[in-house]
Amino acid sequence: SQTIHQWPATLVQPVGSPLSLECTVEGTSNPNLYWYRQAAGRGLQLLFYSVGIGQISSEVPQNLSASRPQDRQFILSSKKLLLSDSGFYLCAWSRSRGTGELFFGEGSRLTVL
Amino acid sequence: AQRVTQPEKLLSVFKGAPVELKCNYSYSGSPELFWYVQYSRQRLQLLLRHISRESIKGFTADLNKGETSFHLKKPFAQEEDSAMYYCALILGNTDKLIFGTGTRLQVFP
């Protein structure tokens, strides 16, 4: 069966520090991968979308970047965090040419101080 | 521009009462819509999709293209229905989903 792992679960970082959130999927190949940010009152905002290794679509201008170095690995990064980067980040995967069903990770709560 | 709107942040009902969670969309193409649910301490997961025309846990949702709506309904709410509900729209020939802001449903005993 397929599983998705996301870590760390919680992270507290000072402003200006770097960020790396990692997500891996097991039990499937060539998945679509997603990074969302979940914020109260703003719902789920799609940040990045990837259909394959090295193929990243950035959905909103921001201080973050994403990379997909391996088929089932998706990394969310920043070189210098801003206060506004605080939030709850969700990684998800779906089958390529799928049915719109996304499978979500447990999320990572980032607090920037 | 494509958009999903859920006008209610919070909906509170008593057990046994009917429930309707509102969702409206804006999309120039042929829409495919979904409802996702997040129970306390659980992952966000798919509840139902309009194309399947199915009833899941007693919930149904009908796509109304004239009103550009996809409201989620259940005739008799249960306490275990308390959760965060998100309406979502898939974009064109992609697998990208955009979500609404969510509605928290509270069902009181």
Summarize the structure.
The complex is a heterodimer of chains A (113) and B (109). With 113 residues, chain A is an all-beta fold.
Beta-strand portion of chain B reads 35-45%
What is Rg of chain B?
13 Å
Provide the β-strand percentage band of chain A: over 45%
Percent helix of chain B, as a range, is under 10%
Q: Overall 3D geometry of chain B?
A: globular
Tell me the span between the first and last alpha carbons of chain B: 41 Å
Q: What is the oligomeric state here?
A: heterodimer
Largest sheet geometry of chain B? 6 strands, mixed
- Tell me the distance between the termini of chain A: 39 Å
The count of helical stretches of chain B stands at: 0
Spans of at least 5 consecutive residues with low confidence of chain B: none
Structural class of chain A: mainly beta
Characterize the structure shown.
The complex is a heterodimer of chains A (113) and B (109). Chain A is mostly beta strands. In chain A, 0% of the residues lie in helices and 58% in strands. Chain A contains no helices and eleven strands. In chain A, the strands form two sheets. In chain A, strands 2, 4, 5, 6, 9, 10 and 11 form a seven-stranded mixed sheet that branches. In chain A, strands 1-3-8-7 form a four-stranded antiparallel sheet, with no helix packed on it. In chain A, a hairpin with a 2-residue loop joins β5 and β6. The model of chain A has no long low-confidence stretch (mean pLDDT 92). Chain B is an all-beta fold and 109 residues long. Chain B contains no helices and eleven strands. In chain B, the strands form three sheets. In chain B, strands 2, 5, 6, 9, 10 and 11 form a six-stranded mixed sheet that branches. In chain B, a hairpin with a 6-residue loop joins β9 and β10. Chain B is globular and about 45 Å long. The interface between A and B is medium-sized, with 28 and 23 residues.
